[in-house]
Amino acid sequence: MKPSRSFASDNNAGVHPAVIKALSGVNRGHVVGYGDDPYTESAVKQFARLFGPDIAVFFVFNGTAANCLSLKVLTSSYHAVICAESAHIYVDECGAPEKFTGCKLIPLSTSDGKLTVDAVRTAYHGIGDQHHVQPRVISITQASELGTVYKPEEVRVLADFAHSNGMYLHVDGARIANAAAWLGLSLRQATRDLGVDVLSFGATKNGAMGAEAVVFFPQPGMGVPQVSPGSRDLGISPNPAISDLKFYRKQGMQLSSKMRFISAQLEALLKGDLWLRNAEHSNRMAKLLERELSKILQIKIVYPVEANGVFARVPRHAIPEIMKRYFFYVWNEEQSLVRWMCSWDTTEADVKQFAKFVRRVVSG
């Protein structure tokens, strides 16, 4: 019999009991739809508590939408978005960012999933030339698709480069909780305080169920509105682009009629710092998995384990055998490289049983 938990993706984990309880708690009576309800107002207050009272925040269903809406507001169709070649927006979103924004994505090669200013400079050209797309956004993934985490100074220097060249810095934060936990920083310290302009805030991978957010931070020249913590009119601002996001969200089929069920999940994760406890746990399980796998001579850990993912080179013959019992993804077939992810509900027993099975297969 296959184990009840796999190491394929933190998307495969269930919903945290506290989030289920929160959903049940708001499932009573009637409230106004589309976000004009007290539960959404309360969730906005939690974002304001963690990121600052002057942010603008929009709730959506999934990470692809959060990324597309973030980029849409920052760009026109003749702009370009610079990203890592491993970025989710480039590899795993079926061309949605390019379709929705009309922009060209410019992927850059990296050794560890992280962009550098030197790499970005190579794509920053053709400025003012009507024959070329105009670089407008640097988009980074935190934690990266390879499980590595940008250090604060690495984010800051990218933000400074972006702002000094009339660009914005967007963070795909599908696993921002894991990154902040590994860095020992608050969510604000890991994003806004480093110069990030827009964050796609991920919650689904950290214990929620179809709940994400787009968060705008006021940076010099950004013009993000002064939004009171309890504001429910999240789309009105002096900045026409941000004012437009409420319309883009509707066009993008991301305006939830029963938004209280998204809001309740986000509040449950943010209130009392459940987001941090979940992320710390999944990160800790990944480090345990790394330690257990490092004892197996035939296994080689390829990238630093800094969040909740372990990338390992495995003997080719062993992969299908391991897959018969545990579902996971082969990251690179040519390199026999696999990705094993830990989740908020991964246990030490899960990790040790898995490592024991891997040892038996690769040794056989």
Secondary structure: elements and pairs:
Layout: H1 17-26, H2 38-51, E1 56-60, H3 63-74, E2 79-84, H4 88-91, H5 96-101, E3 104-108, H6 117-123, E4 134-141, H7 152-164, E5 168-173, H8 176-183, E6 198-202, E7 212-216, H9 240-243, H10 245-251, H11 260-270, H12 274-294, E8 300-301, E9 309-313, H13 318-323, E10 329-332, E11 337-341, H14 348-363
Helix pairs in contact: 1-11, 2-11, 8-12, 12-14
Order of helices and strands: HHEHEHHEHEHEHEEHHHHEEHEEH
Number of strands: 11
User: What's the rounded overall pLDDT mean?
Assistant: 93
Global morphology: globular
Treating each run of at least 4 consecutive H or I residues as one helix, how many helices? 14
**In CATH terms, what is the fold-level topology of the largest domain?**
Aspartate Aminotransferase, domain 2
Percentage of helical residues? 25-40%
User: What would you report as the Rg, rounded to the nearest angstrom?
Assistant: 21 Å
Oligomer: single chain
Structural class: alpha/beta
> What is the CATH-assigned architecture of the largest domain?
3-Layer(aba) Sandwich
Total number of distinct structural domains: 2
Q: Tell me the distance between the termini.
A: 20 Å
Low-confidence stretches: 223-240
The spatial strand order of the largest sheet comes to 1-7-6-5-4-2-3
Give the name of the CATH superfamily of the largest domain.
Answer: Type I PLP-dependent aspartate aminotransferase-like (Major domain)
